Amino acid sequence: LRSLCRLQRIQGHMMSSQVEPEVLLEKVGSAGLITINRPKVLNALNLTMIRQIYPQLKKWENDNETDIMIIKGAGGKAFCAGGDIRAVTEAGKVGDPLAEDFFREEYILNNAIGACRKPYIALIDGITMGGGVGLSVHGRFRVATEKTLFAMPETAIGLFPDVGGGHFLPRLRGKLGLFLALTGFRLKGRDVQRAGVATHFVESKKIPDLEKELVDLRSPSAEDVSRVLDSYQNQSSLDSEKVFVLDKHMSDIDRLFSSSSVEGIMQNLKADGSEFANKQVEMLSRMSPTSLKITYKQLQAGASLSLQDVLVMEYRLSQACMRGCDFYEGVRAG
Q1: CA distance 236 to 255
Q2: Which of 32, 73, 83, 166 is catalytic?
Q3: Is 334 designated active site?
Q4: What is d(CA 50, CA 47) in angstroms, rounded to the nearest whole number?
Q5: Catalytic residue among 73, 130, 131, 184
Q6: Which of 87, 161, 179, 321 shows the smallest number of beta carbons within 10 Å?
Q7: pLDDT digits (tens, 9 = 90+) for 167-216
Q8: pLDDT category, 140, cuts 50, 70, 90?
Q9: Whether 67 is catalytic
């Protein structure tokens, strides 16, 4: 009897997990609302989800009833912690086309977000890495909270900061983008906005009210959305007295990461010998050397390219990485 109960419990669990859609797409007022709904895996993005989000985004962009689009993550912990890399690795190993399809369709979605003619608002209230950055950073508005944790950790797994990282990273001030790309340094809370990755900072507890106010706007322009976000930001004083975490290191970052090669950067850091520089040497020596070089070139080229051209370049790079060994070893070790 006990084993029968257990079997029923397992079946019940299986049923409930099948019923839960991985993405919720709903129309609320004049807003199209996208909710990434895989909280158990920190809302990791897979190909099925990309194939649901993209056509809906285009549909909302082109219809007359939808004025804005909002994207958020379910579960309170993550916005989206990245692409479902395990599935991609398994596919790549056996030459399954998923490894091509995933990157291609993910980048097409990233480009659509960047080119979206209607206000696109990403509520990045939680972990936002890799693929999650691609779903948010190219949109017009990105709202961070004290729970936001941002990073592009790809150099640690033999990849490079893709999803348009070659476009937005070199456009951050000074050498900050190159620093974040090579080291995978994590930014938290208000610092995500201070770095320029988010456009606004709003306290997490105010996000439901903010969302309601955005949804209730009547045929809003981008300026109307901006005004609402600004007003919520002005009411959010949490951590406002703290300085940017990299503030005292910015001149060092600009100086030490200014070099015509990764080797040059490493030499600069070793020669500097400060505690900060030594920490970066230690960090970079753990990364895939090939990934570091690809990333350096990617950002150098991406600085003068459009988002679309960057994504084409990154797609080619992703396929080259799939053929190399560092990526598989990196994912296995990670």
Answers
A1: 34
A2: 83
A3: no
A4: 5
A5: 131
A6: 87
A7: 999 999 999 999 999 999 999 999 999 999 999 999 999 999 999 999 99
A8: very high
A9: no
Query: Quick count: other Cβ atoms within 10 Å of Cβ 288?
Result: 24
Taking only the tens place, the pLDDT of each residue in 292-329 is 999 999 999 999 999 999 999 999 999 888 877 677 77
**Where is 36: in which H helix or E strand?**
strand 31-36
- The answer to whether 128 touches 186, Cβ cutoff 8 Å, is no
Structural contact between residues 283 and 181, judged by C-beta atoms closer than 8 angstroms:
no
Pick the more confident residue, 93 or 249: 249
Helix (H) or strand (E) holding 120: strand 120-124
> Are 255 and 267 in contact, with CB atoms under 8 Å apart?
no
Token pair recorded at residue 131: 């693929």
pLDDT of residue 149: 98
> Sign of torsion, CA 83 87 91 94?
positive
User: Is residue 282 flagged as an active site residue?
Assistant: no
So what's the pLDDT on residue 4? 60
Cβ of 94: how many Cβ atoms within 10 Å? 8
Which one of the listed residues 84, 154, 211, 326 is annotated catalytic?
Answer: 154
Which candidate in 84, 162, 203, 211 is catalytic?
162
Q: Read out DSSP for 45-84? A: B-HHHHHHHHHHHHHHHHSSS--EEEEEESSSSEEE--B-
Q: Which amino acid is at 124?
A: I
Active site residue 131: yes
What is the percent of the chain with per-residue pLDDT over 70, rounded to a whole number?
A: 94
φ/ψ (deg, to 5) at 241? -85, -15
In which region does residue 163 sit, left (phi positive, over 0), alpha (psi from -120 to 50) or beta (all else)?
A: left
Q: Are 111 and 59 a contacting pair, CB within 8 Å? A: no
Structure tokens of 125?
A: 């209230």
Q: Is 103 left (phi over 0), alpha (psi -120 to 50) or beta?
A: alpha
